[in-house]
Amino acid sequence: METYQVDLSEIALRIRREIVRMVYNAQSGHPGGSLSVADILTVLYFKEMNIDPKNPNDPKRDRLILSKGHASPALYATLALRGFFPVSDLAGFRKIDSHLEGHVSREIPGVEVSTGSLGQGLGVGVGMALASRLNGFNYHVYVILGDGEMEEGNVWESLMAGYKYKLNNLVAILDRNGIQLDGYTRDIMPLHDIHAMVESFGWNVIEIDGHSFSEIEDAIEKSKRSERPTFIIANTVKGKGVDFMENNPKYHGSPPESEDLYRRAMRQLGEEI
User: Which residue positions does the secretion signal occupy (predicted)?
Assistant: First the structure.
């Protein structure tokens, strides 16, 4: 597999710029939850995962499932910068003649599963982790979930299955930014003590700052030494890096609505427009 060295903070900043550029140009998309997960994707794709863009279908590769498929701008930007397809393709996001659909699609190089209907990704991850064992491979499966998605019953069924089959090559990462489509998760359906809840299902639970590269890396390394599946609660900020988007439910699914706001966002992310 290919080795890759990069400054994580710089690549995360580039991912965030591409996220904002994509949703602004399309005047459509989900910037908030894409920005909140950028640091996690950076660590996975540029530090931890065993992958090779030149051989994206290697049967021994690690797999990532973006179960919160509406955060497609984050994954598309990550895959493009990692070399799975040209960065110039990002300009076609959500356009009729582009392969970059609003929710992630399996047709795109580097995307393992088409997602968008929430609650399904972890179940697919359970299946992939089982397949690794049955096929005699040793790859890891990472599943990124949204905290609004934790309201789906399928997630909890999958947690039970992951523990039953002792899938220690399965890692679920909860992007806990506290906001979903209709507002704050605490008002819509509180998660209460999610750490204790998931732990009671038999999983190894680790809670981290989802914007700390060192904490993300450490949690991933600990998951590799666990005899149980691992659930990482990554506390994040919705809209991270753009002041008017941070912790603002409006930008769950809305682009910057003016050129001035777009320029302001890009300036904060290190690029003058």
Answer: none
Residue 260: which pLDDT band, with cuts at 50, 70 and 90? very high
Strand duo 141-146 + 63-66: pairing? parallel
∠ Cα 153 157 161 (to 5°): 165
Range of the domain at 139: 8-268
Number of structural domains, the chain? Answer: 1
Residues 6+ apart with CB under 8 A from 161: 123, 126
Does residue 1 fall inside a structural domain? no
CATH of the domain at 180: 3.40.50.970
Angle between helices 8-26 and 213-223 (to 10 degrees): 100
- 16-51 pLDDT, tens digit each: 999 999 999 999 999 999 999 999 999 999 999 999
Look up the pTM and report it.
0.96
Residue 273 belongs to some domain of the structure: no
Residue type, 58: D
- Is residue 24 situated within a structural domain? yes
Token representation of residue 84 = 């799975």
